[in-house]
Amino acid sequence: MAAERGRPRGRRAGGRVQRSSPRRPERSRRDTRGSRTAREGRRARLRRGLSATRASSAAKVLGMSTTRRAAVMAIVVCALAFTIAVPLRTYLSQKAEVAEQERRQEQLREQLDDLRDRRAELNDPAQVEAEARRRLRFVMPGETPYIVQLPEDEAAAERRRPDERQRPQGAWYERLWESASGP
């Protein structure tokens, strides 16, 4: 029957009949580009349609509307944010605490260096003697001490102790009797 229609018959290795299609005339370059672009456009539309169909079918399977899906997504995002927030806050507070401890450690190292220098100074007997003379008013045997008090020294001493009250005169029982009996 195929031979009746004018188509030549041919045999392949599988015993099938191979039909030759009539040859299409060659197209110009413009036609080829236009058809290629059209084919790609059709493919893209098909892909979008398939993905939209898949998404809508997933929504149908879950039985959720777009609003519900958005709400679930918002809840998931908030849960993730809270899950990350606590460890982040802990990390930042520990980082600040470490910085504070490092600053404190540096201060203690400086203080330790100062104390080592002071210890080295006090190993010298001349320095110890000078400190004893200055702070304790130490006098060596055979020396005559002289203390000169200037008016500026008394004013400075009074300025250093403004909150110090004057001591009341008399014994404690006399003051008690005076306060109970009245002036």
UniProtKB/TrEMBL annotation:
One of its GO terms (biological process) is cell division. Residues 1-60, 150-183 are annotated as: Disordered. The keyword Lipoprotein does not apply. Residues 49-59 have a biased composition (Low complexity). It comes from the Bacteria. InterPro entries: FtsL/DivIC. The chain crosses the membrane at residues 70-88. Residues 23-43, 156-167 have a biased composition (Basic and acidic residues). This is Cell division protein FtsB.
